[in-house]
Structures are given as C-alpha cells and as structure tokens.
TrEMBL record, chains A, B:
One of its GO terms (biological process) is glycerol catabolic process. Gene3D superfamilies: Dihydroxyacetone kinase, domain 1 (3.40.50.10440), Dihydroxyacetone kinase, domain 2 (3.30.1180.20). Pathway: Polyol metabolism; glycerol degradation. Residues 7-331 form the DhaK domain. The lineage of its organism: Bacteria, Bacillati, Actinomycetota, Actinomycetes, Micrococcales. It holds the Pfam family Dak1. Its EC number is 2.7.1.121. InterPro entries: DhaK_1, DhaK_dom, Dihydroxyacetone_Kinase. It comes from Ruania alba. GO terms for molecular function: glycerone kinase activity; phosphoenolpyruvate-glycerone phosphotransferase activity. It comes from the Bacteria. Homodimer. The dihydroxyacetone kinase complex is composed of a homodimer of DhaM, a homodimer of DhaK and the subunit DhaL. This is phosphoenolpyruvate--glycerone phosphotransferase.
Amino acid sequence: MKKLINDPQAVVAETVDGFAAAHADLVVSSGDPETLFVSRAGGAVAGKVGLVSGGGSGHEPLHAGFVGRGMLDAAVPGAVFTSPTPDPIMAATKAADGGAGVLHIVKNYTGDVLNFETAAELAELEDITVKTVVVNDDVAVQDSLFTAGRRGVAGTVLVEKIAGAAAERGDDLDSVAAIATRVNENVRSMGVALTACTVPHAGKPSFDLDDDEIEIGIGIHGEPGRERIPSASADEITEQLLTAVAGDLQVASGDRVVLLVNGMGGTPASELYIVYRKARALLEERGAEVTRSLVGNYVTSLEMQGASITVLRLDEELLALYDAPVHTPALTWGA
Amino acid sequence: MKKLINDPQAVVAETVDGFAAAHADLVVSSGDPETLFVSRAGGAVAGKVGLVSGGGSGHEPLHAGFVGRGMLDAAVPGAVFTSPTPDPIMAATKAADGGAGVLHIVKNYTGDVLNFETAAELAELEDITVKTVVVNDDVAVQDSLFTAGRRGVAGTVLVEKIAGAAAERGDDLDSVAAIATRVNENVRSMGVALTACTVPHAGKPSFDLDDDEIEIGIGIHGEPGRERIPSASADEITEQLLTAVAGDLQVASGDRVVLLVNGMGGTPASELYIVYRKARALLEERGAEVTRSLVGNYVTSLEMQGASITVLRLDEELLALYDAPVHTPALTWGA
C-alpha cells in the first residue's frame, strides 16, 4: 500500500485539519476528535433551516466539501467507510440549528440511518426539531452489504444542493424536507469500477478484480454490483449504466435532466468526459434535454478507478433551486 | 490496460467533444480535428489582450478547463503527452485575437516551445502581435527528457489565472506579458509519484516503480525526478518537496504566498489535504503567511497517483489579480 498518509488511524483527523485550514473562509472544524464535524465559518444562520449530512470518510469531497452558503450547514465525517457515531452528529446538528429546525440528509446505509436516527432523538431532547431524508438513488441492486434497500450514492450531491437552496431562500423545515424528498424521487445512479481501492487502516484492496475485468453496479464502498464483465469500451459501459438509470427513472421524451458523471477518485478527467459524451447522446436519443451538467469527482471511493452516472429529472422549481448560488469548497457558482 | 475509453486514437477528440458539450455556457470547440482548439463561448473580446495556452493532453483540467472569463481565451490540446502542432495553435491565436495582440503561455518543453514559436511567426504574418512567456517552475531537475532547462508544471495555472486577470482589466500586451513573467519568476513547484500512468495509445505504464518505491521530483509526463526512495510518510515526503520548493524560491519570513497542492489525477482528495496540512505548517515555520490556497486536481498526469506542491510569492498586485473574478469550467470565483 502506497499512500500519501501518516498514521492510518489519523487520516480523517489530518484530512479535516488540512481541509479546514485550506478553506478557512468557508468552513470551520470542531477540532474535537470525539465530536468531529465541519460547519460553516459564520455559524448557524438565524431563522434558516439547518442542513446536516455525513457518513464514512473516503468519499471526498462528499460531504464536508459541500458545506457553505446555499448547501450544507454542517457535515460529519466518520472513519473511512464507517458511519459517524451519534455524538458528533448531535453536535453538528446543534451547531447547524438556527432555530428553524434541522434536516438530516442520510445516505441509505444501515449504520448511517441508525446513528442519524439516534442523534435526531438526542436533538429532540434539546428541543431541536429534526427531519430526515434518506437518499437511495443507486439502481444497481435492491439490497446490498450494509444496506436494506437501495444504496445512496452520487445523487446525494444533488439532494444537498437543491435542498440547500430551498433552505437558503427561507423555506420552512417541512418544505425543505419535501424538496429533498422530491429530488430523491427523481434521481437515479449507477456506477462501474475498473479497480478496487484500499482502506488505509485495512492495508489491502477491498476486493479483487482481474486485469481484464470490471464491476458493473459497484457500490461506493466496493460492495458488489450486478455483474463482473470483461473490460469493454467506454461507450459500451456507458450504455449499460445509462440504460439502467434512465430505464428505472423512466426518462421520457421532453424530460429536462441534470446529467452528473462522477469520478470514483482515480479516474482521469478525460475518461469522465468520454463517458459524459456518450451518456448525453443516449439521453438525447430518448428525447430528453440535458439541461445542466456536472463532470468531476463528487462522491469518490478513495483511489478507485471508475465512474458513475446520475440523472435527475428537473421541474421548473428544481431547476431554479439547482441554479441558485452556491459557495462551498467543492461547488461554487452564482453571485 | 483498463480505461474508460473507446479507440485510443480518439481519446482527445472525444474528450474535447464531451467537454465542450458539458460546458457549452463557457466554451466552444473548433470541432475541426486538423485544427482542434477550445475557446470562449462568446468569441474574442474586442480590445482585450488574448491569452492562448496549450500542450499535450493528459493533464486535464489544464489547459481547456481554464478557458473562460478572467483566464484563457483559447487552449490547444495536442495528442496525449504530445505537443500540438503549429496549425491549431495558429488557429487558436486567431480566434483569441481581439485586436490587442495575443499572449502565448507555454510550458517549457522543447516541442511546445518550438511549435508555439512557429505559430507566433505565422500569426505575425497575419498582423497579429504575439508575445510569449515560457513557464519553468519545476525545481526538481535542471534539464530533463524533452526539456532544456526546468520543466513547466502546476505553476502554469497561476500564470494563466493572474495574467488572465491582468488582460481582463485592460492591460496592454506588454503589461500582461510582464505580469505573466513576474508570476513565473515567483513560482516554484516539485512533485512526487507513487505510481506510473499509462498513455492510451502506448498501452503500458510510462515507467516502472516498485511496490515500495516512490519517485521524488517526477515530471508530469513521468520524466525522471531527483531520486527514487522507499515509500515514506506523507509528512516526510511533503518536507522533501516543500524544502526544495521554498529553498529555491528563498521564501523568507513575512512573505505572503499562494500554496497549491496539486493532485496528479489518481490521488484521493484526503491525501492532498494531508500534504497541504504539512506544507502549510512548514511554510508557517519559515514565517511565511499562506494567504491563498488551492487543493485539487489542476495539472494531472492521467491516472498517476502522487502530488505536487507549488508556492507563489505574492505582492499586492499579484494578490489582487489572483482574487479577481474567474469563470472557467475548472476554476470559478468572484462575481
């Protein structure tokens, strides 16, 4: 294992240290190893619904990279590929509460769901109203390791972006939760792995793939997907992914969509654009309009090579909220 | 070789296709395989100095990712790790000319320098005034494969950003060239590779590294650096790189600097922040102030794992130009 790390047990703490120092204009770290979280530099916004997300580390920039104006108020990083415990989630919830309640955005993994639930109960004891939206956009498999039901993957970024904009414009907690739910209902994803990744404290690859083999429908922790197939062309792989995603979402002629091609961490940008090119063409063949696009590393799996395709069906309101200004370390647009 | 590509010979054309479609609000591709370049969606800005850069592909987002308001007017992608020929450079120069002349920003590799020189001569025949700044920020080695003198690496992004801001505020060609030169004189970089990368049309890794070996001072095409050493901790590696960079730049107490920690393409973001954390601490030990920071993939080498550290010494004017608005696919801030 060759990695740019020091003590494998210190990876998350040192990453958050560096991250908070590099983006001190936008975020601040709690600094406390027992209740580690990242929140907006200015603190909670009075009267605004707070948005908190989190989960295992190793998926950077998710979630801390999306803390800032127009998106999350706080993010809680667990150990690599391991859910954060209720205490830091509770601390982050408190820090994010501006008096209008807090929305928890949780990827659908058993540990995350349980720990966010416990934290929500603790928060209610302190008179903070919490609602929760569980994201489950991965169409690859019905159940999975660590998951009852579909997994939450790159669609989470779009839930956080759009719900963040709803909170920023002053929506109340019920409305922000409804918007987040609407995004989740209209977003689907599926990924492919060309290589495995190595969790630092494990010291060896999470799974084995032959030199000429790829895994279609991979999970972001390396969970098994639909099938292993011989390595194929980008166009063939993209067609498999896009067909599954667009089929499940029932993309129809005239639909306007966001197309997100997400890198798994070790994939050259050029390859993501080659996948994007084909995915866009296939959506256009179906009569859909690719109204907005994101291409890059948003929800990664350490140094895994591979990509995922996410399609979100837009309506007028979701598009306006998508376009609203956002100022975070990993996503920035608008004034 | 497992890559998300189709025909290895079509990688650049398909990448540019996808890139231009994904960022159609910002850029447009010439579409012509013989004279392939990317330029601003709105065309040349009348009365503004045009900025053109380019070089071999495989370093994305460099250069096309930096085309847009406040930065480049056009970028010319060659084949992977291969200089573009004079014809597309000439075509891009013409497209970027708003009547105030064009600055060529060229990384110091023999092929790039020669081909940009020829293109500049062709442009002069059509009455376009061209000036050239050659970037050579890599302190690792004096000469290298493909290079007489130091190589141009990640410091190029800062030259393009700051010279782009000078052009945007209305500086004339001599002034923009002087600013670009001043950035180059005040910026230094050095990198490390943990793994090699594979050029698509070559089909095998560019060099061999043992499982416990890293290359200090790597070039962005995999050119040899200073030495191969056994794999070490992130802090030890960072100290080697930062000491070389800050020593060569003679960073002194009271200096204000930009610290850029650049990923080589296959490196998890977490590792870049761990390197950033240590590099920042070492600069502060020297009494320097890290005034601005960039952490991410800016000048990559396909899927290579590794990172480089770049330090730019700021003065008041360079800082103001760095902070000026920029709107490109890969770098965005300000109104």
